[in-house]
Amino acid sequence: MLYDSQNIFAKILRREIPCTPIFENDHVLAFADIHPKAPVHILIIPKGAYINAHDFYAQASADEIVEFHKAIAVIIEKHDLQKTGFRLIANTGVNGGQEVPHYHVHLLGGKYLGPIISDPHA
Ligand code: AMP
Questions:
Q1: pLDDT tens for residues 2-55?
Q2: Which positions are annotated as active-site residues?
């Protein structure tokens, strides 16, 4: 599978469409989700062209991987989420329900988030 450079997060990285930025460094951009599912709903993305979690962890450099996770810790602390708890989600591929084919982690918090997944048969 090839990386689609026209995906919406690639456009955000190129500043072709706006976002509400939360954090940025050489390797990482974080911004508010446009349809928040919790009081805190932040998308954290690597700046490199990686399709999903597997692509990122298999192909990215050690620096990119470390910086990505260090950024997550900084953003968690910026919102005090380490005190109350939070959820990190990386939807991947068809079964994971991934909509945007640029690797991203959802950081959700600010309320009790319920069970880990909804029952698709409920
Ligand atoms: P996923 O299903 O994991 O691929 O999630 C994609 C997420 O991107 C969804 O939660 C969308 O609300 C969010 N999203 C889509 N377009 C934008 C945008 N332009 N700015 C911020 N978030 C977006």
A1: 999 999 999 999 999 999 999 999 999 999 999 999 999 999 999 999 999 999
A2: 104
Q: What residues does each domain of the chain span?
A: 8-109
Could you identify the residue written with the tokens 């805190």?
40
Closest approach atom of ligand 1 to CA 17: 19
Which CA distances in Å does 30 have to 27, 47, 120, 121?
10, 10, 30, 33
pTM flag (> 0.85): yes
Choice from 41, 95, 100 to test ligand 1 binding pocket (greatest atom count within 8 A of CB): 100
SS3 call for 64: helix
Query: Does CATH place domain 8-109 in 1.20.1250.20?
Result: no
CA of 114 to the centre of ligand 1 (A): 21
